[in-house]
Every structure is written in C-alpha cells, then in structure tokens.
Amino acid sequence: MFEPDLSGNNTAGYNTTDIGTLPLETCDTMNGSWGFSASDQDFKSVTELVHYLVRAAGYDTNLLLNVGPTLKGTFQPEVIERLEAMGKWTSEFGETIYGTRGCPMAP
Questions:
Q1: What is the pLDDT of residues 3-55, one digit of tens each?
Q2: What pLDDT score does 35 carry?
Q3: Stated pTM of the model
Q4: Which residue pairs from 40-44 have beta carbons closer than 8 angstroms and sit at least 24 positions apart in sequence?
Q5: What residues contact residue 101 under an 8 Å CB cut-off, 6+ apart?
Q6: Which of 28, 33, 42, 73 is least surrounded, with the fewest CB atoms within 10 Å of its CB?
Q7: Which residues, listed in sequence order, are joined to residue 29 by a DSSP beta bridge?
Q8: Which residues contact 51 (CB under 8 A, 6 or more apart)?
Q9: d(CA 38, CA 100)
Q10: How many Å is the Cα radius of gyration of the chain?
C-alpha cells in the first residue's frame, strides 16, 4: 500500500521503495481530506484523477480512490460528478488499463 504515492516512488516521504511480491495498491483522495470534510472544497479535476488511475495501472498498481459520505449519508455533488466522469472514461477507454500489467521499465 502506498499513500498517496505510486509504487516504488517515495514522493510523499513515508513510503518504502522495497515493493516485494504482493499485489500493489495506492490510495488517494478526491480532495485533500480522507473521508468527508465540509471545509475541504479543493477537489482534484477529473483529468487529474484519470491520469493518476492510468499512471497507477502503468505501475502495476490498483487504485483505491477514497470517497466519504456527508453527515447525512449522501455524497457531495462534486464526488458524484467525478465518479460519473471516471466511469464514463473507463467505459470508453477501460480496455487500456483493465487486465494490464506493469512493465520492468518505469512508465
């Protein structure tokens, strides 16, 4: 697990570069907060999120994208908008990442 970084990288300053043989996963947020935060409205763009998904696939890594419900149990419109847009992207271009494996060379 790499938070919030891609496997083998350590740009966050607290991830190991020793990967091992277990399946890889990276996690990230849609904004700057883990879960719901009413004060955090600095959402990443759909383009940023899709690029991170594609880079994760290039590193042979699954992406866990964190979303959290509001205090009322709903999702913010910004979250829904981004998930729908990413779903649309994967419907059209998902074959470029689904079932792929990373390469011995860095992406």
A1: 555 665 656 665 555 566 667 788 889 998 888 888 889 999 999 999 999 98
A2: 85
A3: 0.78
A4: 41/78, 43/78, 43/79, 43/82, 44/82
A5: 60
A6: 73
A7: 66
A8: none
A9: 37
A10: 15
Burial of 46 (0-12, 13-18, 19+ CB in 10 A): middle
Q: Are 89 and 45 in contact (CB under 8 A)?
A: no
Q: Which two tokens stand for residue 84?
A: 């729908």
25 vs 11, 52, 60, 72, CA distance in Å?
A: 16, 12, 9, 30
The DSSP secondary structure of 13-74, one letter per residue, reads SS--S---SSPEEEEEESSSSSS--TT---PPPHHHHHHHHHHHHHTTEEEEEE----TTS-
- pLDDT of 81 > 80? The answer is yes
Contacts of 46 (CB under 8 A, 6+ apart): 81, 82, 85, 86, 89
Amino acid symbol at 27: C
User: Tokens 């979250």 label which residue?
Assistant: 79
